[in-house]
Structures are given as C-alpha cells and as structure tokens.
Sequence to fold (122 residues):
Amino acid sequence: MPDEMQQRAGVTVLVCDPAGPTVATEQDALDLIGAAFAGAQVVAVPANRLDERFFSLGTRFAGDVMQKFVNYRLRLAIVGDISTHLDGSSALRALVHESNQAGHIWFVPDLDALDARLRAMS
Fold:
C-alpha cells in the first residue's frame, strides 16, 4: 500500500506505508510534511520506517524530526512496537511518556490506538 490519506475518527491522516522508504534525514521528514499538506492533520509513520538513530536520543535526530512537525503544526504519530528501544533507554521512555501527554507527537502501538487518541481529542 502506498502512503495514503485516510479519514480516521473524523480526522484526515496521512497513513504511511510500512514498506515505504526509511525516514533517515530531516529532508525525509520534510517530504512527509509536504505530502501531508494535501490536507492531512496527522502523519502516521510506522516505527519500522524510522532510522535507528531516531531511537538513540544522543543523535538528536528524533528531536530534529519532531520539531519539524511542531513547526509546521502537524501531529506526528509513531505507530508500532518500540518496546525493544524503550528497554534500552530511560531517556527514550521519558520522551515517549511526555510526548504522549501532549498533543503534537504520539507514540501508539497501532492504528486502532491512534483512532482512540483522535476520538478523545474531539
């Protein structure tokens, strides 16, 4: 399935293909943001599409990507199981916890959980 716009819980979401290209640079993130400008309010990126550096906070890649989405006022949902990354980093666990408390960046296990978050917002 290619990346596609979907209506989920009354919100337009760019749902990214799990088999799509890796988000490995800030430009890759900007490309997703550009695709979302066709009407999406949320970009749902499968966790497996994120370069491993995203989960190693010392690289600052996660912060750079997340800041781009905040700057463009788009929500970013990281979708999938990241438990192996969380097991190895208390800083990442703290980031995920804090992000999930706010409204711009969410880490969710699946699209059903994203739908529940979206319904709770409305």
About this structure: The two ends are 28 Å apart (CA to CA). The mean pLDDT is 96.
